[in-house]
Here is the input.
Amino acid sequence: MTGKPLLPNRIYRMDAIEGLKRIEDDSVDLIVTDPPYNIASADRTTMKNGKPLSTLKAWGHWDCFHPFDYDVFLMQVISECYRILKPGGALYMFTAREQNGYFVRQAVARGFTYRNQLAMVKKNPLPSFAKSNYRSAFELCMYLTKGKPELKTFNFVSQAECKNVFHYANSHRSTQHPTEKPLEFTKLLVQVSSNAGDLVVDPFMGSGTTAVAAQELGRRYLGFELERDYLAMARKRLKGGTRKTASRRVA
Ligand SMILES: C[S@@+](CC[C@H](N)C(=O)[O-])C[C@H]1O[C@@H](n2cnc3c(N)ncnc32)[C@H](O)[C@@H]1O
Here is the structure.
C-alpha cells in the first residue's frame, strides 16, 4: 500500500491502479467491477439517444488501448484486487466475451480460485444493422475468490436467483453513461457475496452502479472514476437523484 489511506463511502476521481495501490492488503470483502473492455471501434455499433453510432464515437477514448497495454493494465488490476481482498473474498469482473477465458486463466495464475462464469442476457438486444452476424445478446462476468471460498460469505438467496444466467431488459438505465450495468444484477452479487457493513470496492465506478447497490444494501463502498461527468452521475445517484430502485430484497 502507498500514500494516505482512503475513506469508505467515497468515489475518488483517481486512476484505478493508483487508487487500488492506496488500499491495504487483505482489507476488502468484495470487489465488483466492470473495467473498459477495449472494444470501442469504428466498426462496432451501439445506440445513443435512439440512433445507431459506432462504439468509438459513443464511448470515446477510455475504451481504447493498444492490445499489449490493455493486457498489462488488466493484469495489474487483477493483481491489486487479489492483494486487497480478504482471504475468501470475491472478485466479480466483467470483460469482453472474447477475452473472458484469457483473463480467468491469468487470475487463476495470480492465485484466485475460479468459481463460475455468470452470463447477463439481454431480453431486447440491438438489432443487427448489417445482418451479417448473430445479434450480440450476452455479457460475461467472471466470479473468483481469493483462496478458499468457504472462508467467506456466500448468501444463497434462492434457487431461482442464484443461477449463472441473469436476464435483463435494456430499459434498466438511469443515467447517460454508455455502459451502465443493471442495478438489479449488481445488487444480487453484493447481496450474495457480502454482509451488512462489509466493504465493497469498484475501481471503475462509471455511473456508480456498484456504489448504489452497496449503499442500498447497507454495505460500505469505495471506488475510482476518471471522468468528471460520470463521477457527477454517480454522486447524483448516490444522493437519490436519478435512482431507479431495483426490486431486490435486502439481506
Ligand atoms: C465499463 S465502464 C463502468 C460502468 C459502470 N459499471 C456503470 O454501471 O456505470 C468503465 C469506466 O471506467 C472508467 N475508467 C477508464 N479507465 C480508468 C482508469 N484508469 N481509472 C479509473 N477509471 C477508469 C471509464 O471512464 C468508465 O466510466
Notes: The longest helix spans residues 67-84. The first strand starts at residue 10 and ends at 12.
